[in-house]
Amino acid sequence: MITLRHVAKQFGSGTKALEDIDAEIQPGDFVALLGPSGCGKSTLLRLLSGLEHPSSGEIDWGHNGPPAPGEIGYVFQDPTLLPWADAAENVYLPLRLRGVSRAAAMPRVSAILKQMGLAGFEQAKPKSLSGGMKMRVSIARALVSKPSLLLLDEPFAALDEFTRHRLQDDLLALWRESRMTVIFVTHSIYEAAYLASQIIIMTSRPGRIFTTITSDLQDEAQRRNSPAYHTTVSQITECFQRSVPA
Fold first, then answer.
1. For 11-54, how does the pLDDT look when each residue is reduced to its tens digit (9 = 90+)?
2. Which residues, given as ranges, of the chain have pLDDT below 70?
3. How far, CA to CA in Å, does 84 sit from each of 32, 123, 130, 197?
């Protein structure tokens, strides 16, 4: 379990991004961080990844301590692929950095690319891939090391609605299969309601947690058409409106 106690983050410029963040994230949760632009969602993700450190407060990782670098997968809003490397080489990168030989890694690389619907595109360079395919490669790269914690920073924001829906379904299927802990930053109320088992709604900067909504839609068939989904959307919308001053 990840426990955040009175976590705050202030940058050297004086900008206070986060203030008094208290939260508990259970192993296997799918958590959506939802809030207005600039409320510190991405900063909170960076604190959990170890790329930043709190100015005050603490992040308690439980008895086993924080995950090792190879146990955290990070997907950015932009795919950030190496333009000169093909899909397989991009996915192999985190394993190569950990000293895994190409021969040992390629079966796993091929398997995760196939799982992401990219079989046959292993040798394709990023410039020849669509936006959705690039994001699939980026997610595959984050998953190839079999992380226990997957962090995603608005990965579908720049995609068309059709591609976005397909990747949401793919991500949900991967989470169901692995039950890794997922923390997903989004601006979309509909995306948060569709994907997450726990929706954390944040206030404007400095970001605080306004409320947390629990959902159990993840194993429900035809979720987008279910009354429970629309009820969750309405609940999130009401809380979000109350969290942001007019």
1. 988 899 999 999 999 999 999 999 988 899 999 999 999 889 99
2. 217-222, 246
3. 33, 11, 16, 38
With contact defined as beta carbons under 8 Å apart, do 214 and 198 qualify?
yes
Residue with structure tokens 């955040």?
4
Q: Are 51 and 43 in contact (CB under 8 A)?
A: no
What tokens were used for 228? 């429970």
Residue 60 CA, chain-centre distance (Å), reads 20
DSSP state for residue 172 in the 8-state scheme: H
Which residues make Cβ contacts (< 8 Å) with residue 37, sequence separation at least 6?
187
Whether residue 72 lies inside any domain: the answer is no
- Is 140 found in the same domain as 47? no
Report how many domains make up the chain. 2
Question: Which residue has tokens 């994230």?
Answer: 25
Give the pLDDT score at 23. 94
Q: Are residues 195 and 230 in the same domain?
A: yes
At residue 53, the pLDDT reads 92
Q: Answer whether 186's CB lies under 8 Å from 37's CB.
A: no
Angstrom CA distances, 114 to 58, 97, 175, stand at 39, 22, 16
CA neighbor of 136 nearest in space, from 166, 162, 106, 160: 166
Q: How high is the pLDDT of residue 12?
A: 86
Q: Identify the pLDDT of residue 194.
A: 92
**Residues of the domain holding 210:** 2-67+148-243
How many residues are given for the chain? 246
